[in-house]
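Lecture notes, continued. The same structure-token format from the folding unit now serves as the input rather than the output. Read the line below as a description of shape only.
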């Protein structure tokens, strides 16, 4: 199974934005030498939670600084991006990187980001479904044409044209049953974040695989990509202390960014019903207990403990590709590098051989 590194570009206590970016990109370059398979920068806007307004631009920089590692978007948020431009930029990135581009698509969740782009959040599901179809077809055909209710585009040819097929390197974020169904219908891979016990998530993943195979005879779905916040240390107690402190801090920033502690999703319409339920659960159970559950859902510990956690997950959901985030919530960069190096020596070879 492939193992990647996810980049979230959070504001750092000890460094300004320029230095933070320099260090994050240096880690991405080092990830190739450590043996990781892919780099996955996110897309976020207008706040310190995550500062990466253009992950394709980040990957273009990394394309010139690396030679082997895959370059994936985690993800391009379609309601904030013209699907025609998404097709153009991904194909260009594929040329610039000698065929290493990986396309990940998402719908978006933060009200502040939708408002910043003056995009109606309640229409995001319908727009994403239509735009994703345009992007998936455009990457294969090398032309874009759309005549749906929310996405219209007279036929245009993309130049440079596709370097190769994206059929085995296109994904979308799937955090709800509806999103899994869209991915199955489109015949693309699934990406998700570790946030709940895998016994609860497993039925959705298995249903996605069945739907995919029913709709696309003769095709096998790609292993799902799972994004984890990772702390790896030879001392279990040190790993636990850092995980509790920093993964917990990250999760609290997530609750603030997505406004999970208020009821705004209930006023957003049917497009975000799953988050209505999740927001209510966070408020009912309490921030402390949900933070503890989030920490437990991610991967941390000694290399041996991490392998055990990954194998236990694999027994529940089958094969999956790992995208590990090692730098987050102002973890000191020397600790981040030590964690990545130990993981790359003692966990990476094992999981890649699975």
């Amino acid at each position: 199974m492939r193992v990647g590194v996810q980049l979230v570009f959070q504001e750092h206590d000890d460094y300004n934005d320029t230095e933070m970016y320099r260090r994050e990109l240096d880690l991405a370059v080092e990830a190739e030498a450590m043996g990781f398979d892919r780099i996955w920068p996110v897309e976020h806007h207008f706040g310190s939670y995550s500062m990466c307004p253009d992950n394709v631009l980040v990957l273009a920089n990394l394309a010139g600084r690396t030679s082997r590692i895959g370059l994936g978007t985690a993800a391009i948020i379609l309601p904030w991006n013209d699907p025609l431009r998404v097709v153009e930029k991904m194909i260009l990135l594929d040329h610039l990187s000698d065929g290493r581009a990986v396309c990940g698509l998402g719908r978006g969740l933060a009200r502040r980001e939708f408002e910043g782009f003056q995009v109606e959040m309640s229409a995001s599901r319908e727009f994403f479904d239509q735009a994703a179809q345009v992007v998936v077809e455009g990457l294969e055909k090398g032309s874009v044409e759309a005549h749906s209710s929310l996405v219209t585009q007279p036929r245009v040819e993309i130049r440079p044209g596709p370097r190769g097929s994206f059929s085995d390197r296109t994904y979308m974020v799937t955090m709800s049953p509806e999103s899994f169904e869209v991915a199955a219908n489109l015949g693309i891979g699934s990406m998700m974040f570790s946030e709940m016990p895998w016994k609860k998530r497993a039925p959705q993943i298995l249903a996605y695989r069945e739907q995919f195979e029913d709709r696309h005879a003769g095709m096998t779905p790609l292993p799902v990509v799972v994004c984890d916040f990772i702390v790896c240390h030879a001392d279990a107690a040190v790993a636990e202390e850092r995980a509790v402190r920093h993964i917990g801090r990250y999760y609290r920033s997530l609750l603030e960014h997505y406004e999970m502690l208020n009821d705004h999703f209930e006023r957003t319409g049917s497009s975000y019903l799953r988050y209505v339920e999740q927001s209510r659960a966070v408020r009912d159970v309490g921030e402390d207990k949900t933070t503890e559950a989030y920490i437990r859902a991610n991967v941390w510990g000694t290399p041996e403990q991490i392998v055990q956690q990954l194998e236990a997950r694999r027994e529940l959901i089958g094969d999956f590709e790992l995208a590990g985030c090692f730098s987050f919530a102002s973890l000191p960069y020397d600790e981040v590098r030590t964690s990545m190096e130990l993981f790359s020596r003692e966990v990476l070879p094992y999981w890649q051989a699975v």
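Point for the exam: The two ends are 6 Å apart (CA to CA).
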